[in-house]
Specification:
2 helices; 12% helix; six-stranded antiparallel β-barrel; single chain; Thrombin, subunit H; mainly beta; 8 strands; globular
């Protein structure tokens, strides 16, 4: 097997653990995030500006945005639609899929996962109940650091 045969997205562990992510503050700066981020490895389908569809995983998420892992180096301000597959808590049954419109804010190569990490700012949820569901799911399964 060569490096070209390795699919970095499928190499990610598929677990449903949800835990808060603590950011290091920028040099001399302060944290500007509006909400706690949670580390998850949920599957996503990425629709880029209504043309191309790709798969990836979420690295961390809040109700305002997410860092995703995928094989694409996306330009900032690219319009995307994320279809987030949120697994059931029992790991049995069909995941709930929520749809979120967003824009990319950055893209960097993630050496650890051998793919790109892309920051997504959420603009609009497909249904108002999707935002509430995501917020409840994350906050109710918060693991104290």
């Amino acid at each position: 097997m060569t490096d070209d045969d390795i699919d970095p997205i499928n190499m990610l562990e598929a677990f449903n653990d949800v835990s808060p992510v603590k950011s290091l503050l920028p040099q001399g700066g302060k944290e500007n995030r509006r909400a706690i981020r949670y580390k998850v490895t949920w599957r996503i389908v990425i629709d880029i500006e209504g043309h191309d569809v790709y798969e990836g995983k979420i690295k961390d998420i809040s109700v305002y945005g997410a860092a995703i892992l995928n094989g694409l180096n996306l330009k900032p301000n690219t319009g995307i639609t994320l279809h987030i597959h949120i697994p059931t808590l029992s790991n049995h049954g069909t995941p709930r899929v929520i749809k979120v419109e967003g824009k990319t804010s950055y893209s960097i190569h993630d050496d650890k996962h051998r793919c790109f990490r892309v920051g997504i700012a959420f603009i609009e949820f497909g249904r108002a109940s999707d935002r509430a569901y995501l917020e409840a799911r994350l906050s109710n399964h918060h693991i104290e650091a």
